[in-house]
């Protein structure tokens, strides 16, 4: 079964969302050292530029998935794309750091609606047996932006200012907005569905309070009144959210999915991989401040290191479709482990080959894990709750990224140097990646065994 012309147009239109997410992961970290110098920030403070964005997505993406099912994926995608463009312009025009972080959070909220809508359109358009290959091609196309993006960001920082570097995302969003409005057909909507406001508010409050507590704990101190108060807020929000689930009044979860062990294991895999996604932020900080690389040099290194990952993305998806997702995911965790070892060797020897290998293998590991994992996870969802399933998947994904960044920032604040932090963090991540890889071999099944509507 091949792709028609309209299939390619839809795939290219929706890929802009993935391109923006990859751009944020690979290009925006290059801006952070410049922002840190411009606003005279600490490591913990500048991390809010990324973590605020992640929190916005993690807190609202399940709500976004539910509302996508209610109002339709095309309408939700267009509205959220427009909001993303507007908020990006506000980020670029920020004159102080706090407004910049606020607009980054709201930017993440707009992405929380855009991402499940985009995933729902892909699942609606392509049958089950083509989804692994489709996600692989989507990663290939989206990764072109993550390849060129770091180089462009480095050039902009050298020739202009950090404000221009934030304009790459809205340019992609504008292309997606126009192309989706012209070529993507209207999807089905479920007007009989609703959103439990109590559940939604308690979940959003839980996500924000948990991340604020982790991010600020090193500044406030673990025995301070602020930490005690914020911990109480986290506990109250967790109890309220748990109460709404216990009463079977949940509208954000699909219980048929949440009791499926294979679906839950896919979420665990994604959480583990995304927990590590923030590590290159600290690698870039180490290169700029510890090894005195310029932003343009870092952009070129990161950009070139992305090439292997997007070249292998279609192959990963095709292998998962034809055989099973377990082998690509397993090799993904192996790649992550080897990347950490390579970076440790770069610290010791300063050999450029080890640095490029670390960045390339880290990027490839994420592709090998996320491409088959998302296709497998969404294959468990029925037609009427696909966006809800996408929302649950995206929540776990960005919750992992947000908590990972918060924990690494906390570890950074309690070590004297980045080198000491890497010894502690790399060791822990290698151990958990090893466990996740072993569990993958015995837990994931092939798509041919999944009995869901196509």
> Helical amount among residues, as a percent range?
over 70%
| Rg on CA atoms, Å | 21 Å
Tell me which oligomeric state these chains represent: single chain
Poorly predicted runs: 447-454
The counted number of beta strands is 0
Strand content: under 5%
What is the average per-residue confidence, as pLDDT, rounded to a whole number? 82
Content-based structural category: mainly alpha
Distance between the termini: 14 Å
Silhouette:
globular
Q: What count of helical segments does DSSP give? A: 20
Please trace the helix and strand order, writing H or E for each element: HHHHHHHHHHHHHHHHHHHH
The major beta sheet can be summarized as: none
């Amino acid at each position: 079964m091949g792709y028609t012309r309209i299939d390619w147009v839809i795939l290219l239109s929706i890929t802009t969302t993935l391109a923006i997410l990859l751009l944020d992961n690979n290009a925006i970290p290059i801006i952070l050292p410049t922002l840190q110098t411009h606003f005279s920030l600490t490591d913990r403070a500048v991390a809010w530029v990324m973590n605020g964005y992640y929190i916005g997505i993690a807190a609202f993406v399940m709500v976004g998935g539910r509302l996508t099912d209610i109002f339709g994926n095309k309408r939700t995608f267009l509205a959220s794309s427009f909001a993303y463009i507007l908020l990006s312009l506000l980020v670029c025009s920020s004159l102080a750091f706090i407004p910049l972080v606020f607009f980054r959070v709201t930017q993440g909220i707009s992405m929380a609606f855009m991402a499940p809508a985009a995933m729902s359109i892909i699942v609606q358009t392509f049958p089950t047996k083509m989804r692994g290959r489709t996600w692989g091609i989507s990663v290939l196309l989206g990764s072109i932006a993550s390849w060129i993006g770091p180089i462009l960001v480095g050039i902009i920082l050298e020739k202009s200012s950090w404000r221009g570097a934030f304009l790459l995302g809205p340019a992609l969003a504008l292309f997606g907005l126009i192309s989706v409005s012209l070529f993507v057909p209207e999807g089905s909507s479920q007007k009989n569905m609703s959103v439990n406001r109590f559940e939604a508010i308690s979940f959003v409050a839980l996500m924000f309070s948990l991340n604020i507590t982790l991010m600020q704990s090193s500044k406030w101190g673990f025995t301070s009144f602020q930490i005690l108060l914020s911990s109480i807020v986290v506990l109250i929000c967790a109890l309220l959210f748990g109460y709404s689930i216990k009463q079977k009044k949940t509208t954000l979860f699909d219980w048929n999915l949440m009791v499926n062990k294979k679906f839950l294991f896919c979420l665990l895999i994604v959480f583990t991989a995304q927990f590590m996604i923030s590590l290159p932020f600290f690698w870039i900080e180490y290169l700029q401040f510890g090894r005195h690389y310029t932003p343009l040099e870092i952009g070129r290194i990161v950009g070139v290191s992305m090439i292997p990952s997007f070249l292998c993305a279609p192959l990963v998806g095709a292998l998962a479709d034809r055989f099973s997702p377990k082998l690509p995911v397993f090799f993904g965790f192996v790649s992550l482990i080897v990347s950490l070892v390579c970076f440790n060797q770069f610290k010791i020897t300063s050999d450029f080959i080890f640095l490029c290998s670390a960045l390339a293998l880290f990027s490839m590991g994420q592709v090998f894990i996320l491409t088959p994992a998302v296709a497998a996870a969404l294959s468990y969802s029925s037609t009427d709750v696909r966006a809800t399933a996408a929302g649950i998947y995206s929540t776990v994904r960005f919750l992992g990224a947000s908590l990972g960044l918060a924990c690494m920032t906390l570890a950074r604040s309690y070590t004297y140097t980045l080198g000491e932090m890497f010894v502690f963090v790399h060791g822990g991540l290698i151990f958990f990646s090893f466990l996740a890889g072993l569990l993958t071999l015995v837990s994931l099944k092939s798509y041919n065994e999944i009995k869901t509507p196509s």
